Amino acid sequence: METALGVPAVWCAVNFLSGTLASLPLEMFVKSASGREAVEGNPLYAILQDAINPEWTSFAWRKYSMVNILTLGRAFTFIERNKAGRVTNLWPLNPLLTTVELRQGRKFYIYEDTRRRIEYQASEIIDVPFMLDADGISHVAPIQRLAKAVGLAIALESYAEKFFLNGGVPPLALYGPVGSPAAASRAATDVTKAIRDANAERRNVLIMPKDHELKPVGIDPDKSQMEAARRFQIEEIARIFDLPPVFLQDLTHGTFSNTEQQDLHFVKHTLMQWLTAWEQELNLKLFTARNTKNFVAFNQDGLLRGDFTTRMNGYATAIQNAINTPDEVRSMENWPTHGGDAAKLHIQGATVPLGSQKMGHNGGPPLGDQPAANENKNTDEAKAA
Fold it and tell me: Residue 200: how many CA atoms within 13 Å on its side-chain side?
């Protein structure tokens, strides 16, 4: 894993995905007749949103877990409960020290280090794998499974490093008369030193021994298309983590217009699957089977926000069509709410609170203002007289 993270594209992919998921608000809700309501007073809300235990913040826990998932293939977290069965702390486990076993159809987790061996039941462990193997117990480690693709990127990095550490001089062969192997070795050493010195001092003239010729060995980086190969490996690594290359800082095929669409693609097709995996595992393990009201979910609003003008136009449409109240919109922007009519739904027209606009049948005058039938009859008789 450490070697793979030495490749900039792998580092960027892992850091970007883990940091993005860790930075999203993780909130707790309760189902209600009107939909759902945030449960900010619940101790579990503070654990998930702020700090999972006295030593770990929620952000650090989620990023640590995602780094393990994207490199080692899995993340484990122990759920500490009190005697009443309520969650008090969450403790991340080292995946290299944790194994999974299946006994009589039930899953168990064994954590073992130099000091202790602890066995946990499935209900005590939050388990998020990158991908499960065919047996449904073991997992697939992406870096290990795709070692050849990552290894090629490492080899290209190593080749470029050696080439430039050598002053940009490719391997060379010295042709010419030599008296002995020792003399040939000394001549080669002297010529190599002379080439490096000339390159360092930017001298354009290199003095060669009489009747000797210097020829490069192998293919230079330009002819071997090293730059194109390194760029292709960025795309390969982007495929491993299901990321558009633009998120690995490769803007070769990026424009101002399609980059915005790639943002949406990332949220819908890459991040969404990880959010779903986390939400379902947390809801399965943190709540009992009898709890059908409480659940946790990530707040994605921050990722899907457009620029200021786009947001304001969207908010105006939502307010004028009774989708959101003005106070709800202000809350989305972290602005203070006002209450009163600002907490009510409005509808386009005079933009008044929903229900206060009077309307008759087919858009006619208010029904209460229609004259009674006998009043119309008396009026007609009076006109005839």
Answer: 8
- Note the pLDDT of residue 362: 58
Q: Say if residues 126 and 277 touch (Cβ distance below 8 Å).
A: no
Evaluate whether residue 78 is within a structural domain: yes
- Residues facing 93 on adjacent strands: 76
pTM, to two decimals = 0.71
Distances (CA, A) of 299 to 36, 53, 303: 13, 22, 9
Phi, psi of 112 (to 5 degrees): -140, 125
- In a domain, residue 210? The reply is yes
Residue range(s) defining the domain that contains residue 343: 307-349
Domain-embedded: residue 187: yes
- For residue 242, is it within any domain? no
Say yes or no: 125 and 81 in one domain.
Answer: yes
- The count of structural domains within the chain is 3
Q: Is the pLDDT of residue 226 over 70?
A: no
**pLDDT at residue 380, as a whole number:** 55
Mean pLDDT over 284-302 rounds to 85
